[in-house]
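Q: What would this chain look like folded?
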Amino acid sequence: MDKFLVGFFASINNDIYNLYKNAGYNTMYMHGNVGDFWNRKSVYGRLAVDQMSFIDAFDDTSEMIGGFLSDELFYRQAVSKLNDKNEPFMAFLVAASSHVPYYLEGIHDKEEKISIDIGKYEDTQFGYYLEAVNYADYAFGVLIDELKLSGLYDDSVILVFGDHYGLNMFDENLMEFASEVNPNYNIVTSRNNYESVLCGLKVPGIQNRKIDSPVSKLDIKPTLLELSGIDDDLSLGFTMFSTKDYAFINNGYAVTDKYYYVNGTWYYRNSGAMVRFSDLHSEKMQTLLEYEANVVKELDISSSIVINNLLLK
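A: My prediction, written as C-alpha cells:
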C-alpha cells in the first residue's frame, strides 16, 4: 500500500500534511471551485501541500453545478493528476455536486446519469436533494472506474466522508418519505441520522469489515497514519480500529452505542427517552458522567488550538 487517496467533501486535521510529507509522500489538495472559497487557497497554502488544484487548474470546465466543477469532470481530471505522480501520494479531494442547493442544471445528458425516479417530489427541495445524491453516487462510480483504469485502485486506501448533514431534518417531504419507508420513524430517529454523516474506508486486503463503535472526524488522522505506518505524535482522536465506545461532536453532542448527550441531558438512542441515572448501575452512571465532562474538555481543547493557532506555538 504505497498510495493513499484521502477524503471527499470535507476538511481534516491540518497537521496530517506535514506528517505524510516528512514520510516521503507527495501531498495534494483538489477542489473544483475558486481558491478563495472559504479561504482554502490561503489556508492550504500555509500547510505542507505540494500541489493545490482549484478550478483554474482543470482544463475541462464545460460542466458546472452551482459554481463548482461537476463531480464527474472533477474526478476524471483529478485521477489524471494523481496518475502523474511516481512517488507515494496523499491526496485530499473535495467534491461538491451533492451540496445545497442541489440543482443539477449544468449536467450534460442528465437523463443518463440520474437513475432515480423522484415521483411526487418533483420540483421540491427534497426531490432536488434525491437527484443530487443519486448523481453523486453515479460520479463516485466514475471515480472508482478511473482509479481502476489507471492502476491506482488496488494499491490505494480510499476514505470517503461527508462534511455535514444534508437536507434539513425537519423538511416536510423528507419526514413524509422517511415515515413511509419506516413506520417507526420519529424525531429520535431523525436526530440520530442528523448527527451522522457518510463514512466509508477501503483498505487493500480487508474485506467486508464493519466498524460498530462510534467514530468522528477527529479519528480520521490517527486511522490513516496507522494504516500507513507513520508515527502520530499528536491527535485528539483515536484510530477507528480501537475499542473506543464514544464520539464527540463539535456542537457539544456525545454519542455512544446506546446513549447520546445534548444540552446537559442523556437520552437513549433507540427511544429518545431521557436517561434517569437512578435507573443505571453506578459504573455506567460514572462512565456517562466522565463522557459528559470530557466532551466539554476535549471540545475546548480543539477550539483553543484552532482559535489561538496553537500548533505553531
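The longest helix spans residues 282-308.
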